[in-house]
Amino acid sequence: MKKILRYLGVLLLVAVIGGCLYLNSLMPIITGYAAKNLASAVFISGRDAEDVEALDLNFSFIRFNRNTVDYENKTVTSRFLWGKATAVYRDGYGVTLLRGDEADELRQQCSPLPQETTPSAPIPMGDSSLRANLEPIAKALVDDRSYNGHPFAFVVLHQGELVAERYDEGIHADMKLLSWSMAKSFTNAIAGLMVGDNMVDIDAPMDIPEWQNDDRKNITLSNLLQMQSGLEWNEDYGARSDVNLMLHSEKDMGLFALSKPLEHEPGTHWYYSSGTTNIVMRYLCGKFDSDEAFLNYIRTRLFAPLGIRNAVFEQDMSGTPIGSSYLYITAKDFARFGQLYLDDGCIDSLRILPEGWVDYTVTPASDSKGGYGAFFWLNKGKELPDVPEDMYYCKGHDGQRIFIIPSKELVVVILGYSPLPDHVIDFNGLLKDIIDVI
């Protein structure tokens, strides 16, 4: 009996040690998620910290963090058991999750970005009767939550004119809100601009040094844009998946992703990968002399022509914008971006994206079954059965969407906190109702 008890005791000890080691490996993710997202919501969006904790951070282990917001130094520190993470806000650069460095060291790495003082050009108002007819839908979505979820903002453009706009309590028209993975579509636009400026070739093998001694040297920029790089990746958001490790543990997110081995021949296997987008952003950034020069290019070539002011494209600790996840602009700014694609990359008579880029963007990746183009989702597989097949869209975590429907001349933006599986918005029903009114 004593031997059995000793044996059981040893097993219990091993289990406890193993559990603690595993939990310790999750600490950067648990604390990092809370610190980063709370800091961005408070210092970029201007939301109330308690509201963010009660809604956005009220799940899984994340809800058990003890969060400290330092308004003077613009940092957030989150603690869970023995774990701790700190996120730092910098003007113009947004929030960066510290990994090994001190806040003061991070602040010294870059020059402050000047604030843009020119106001955004107003979006023209649409027909008053159409706006009145869409008002019940806006109220049902945002106020009554009749389409499920917890929307923060709702904007509809028809023929380039504003026909619906509504915001949740505590949210307003000038508030910058999180893109999550809709940022990937903005990375598409940056790549398109650089193609038009003859800075990159999407069909040529990429000059990434780490790839030159194996078959990864055959990967093209187009393979990456279409999520068909063939690189190993785990996008499962549970526990220690690649995407969680990249966003919450890595200083250089693109380097982490491009270090993955090849599993499939490039261009033959579709798999959604946030790491892929950060490889692209790192590659594009590397074409400039400095991180600041790259940010200035994005500002002057993409955001300024669209009338988007003081956009915040957050960086990792290497200085590269996090193209997979972290862009903050207003709801109407997201609509402006959708309208750019609806208008074939033009603003009035000014061509922004190169001719043919939008057609390339909405061409299905060969292995995507009609569901994915180049950093945009497609409806050619009729995922939304009551919406036209020509619809394509930007899709972000927790229910962020920009829907672009060329046949109906529509752009529809929904932002908020509407996570799977229980709180997902009925996008099919919502878009059908909007189309019926139009």
Describe the structure.
The chain is α+β, with helices and mostly antiparallel strands and 438 residues long. The chain folds into two domains: 2-107, no CATH class; 133-437, DD-peptidase/beta-lactamase superfamily (Beta-lactamase, 3-Layer(aba) Sandwich), CATH 3.40.710.10. The protein is 37% helix and 16% strand. The protein has helices at residues 2-45, 49-55, 103-107, 128-143, 183-196, 221-225, 242-249, 253-258, 274-285, 291-306, 331-342, 357-361, 427-437, and strands at 66-70, 75-80, 83-90, 94-97, 151-158, 161-167, 177-178, 312-313, 327-329, 346-347, 350-351, 377-378, 392-396, 400-405, 410-416. The strands form four sheets. A six-stranded antiparallel beta sheet has the order 6-5-15-14-13-12. The chain has a four-stranded antiparallel beta sheet with strand order 1-2-3-4. The protein starts with a helix and ends with a helix.
Layout of helices and strands:
Blueprint: H1 2-45, H2 49-55, E1 66-70, E2 75-80, E3 83-90, E4 94-97, H3 103-107, H4 128-143, E5 151-158, E6 161-167, E7 177-178, H5 183-196, H6 221-225, H7 242-249, H8 253-258, H9 274-285, H10 291-306, E8 312-313, E9 327-329, H11 331-342, E10 346-347, E11 350-351, H12 357-361, E12 377-378, E13 392-396, E14 400-405, E15 410-416, H13 427-437
Antiparallel strand pairs: 1-2, 2-3, 3-4, 5-6, 5-15, 7-9, 8-9, 10-11, 12-13, 13-14, 14-15
Give a brief rundown of this model:
The chain has 438 residues and is of the alpha+beta class.
CATH topology of the largest domain: Beta-lactamase
Largest sheet report: 6 strands, antiparallel
Mean pLDDT: 93
Q: In what range is the share of β-strand residues?
A: 15-25%
Strand order of the largest sheet: 6-5-15-14-13-12
Helical stretch tally: 13
Helix content: 25-40%
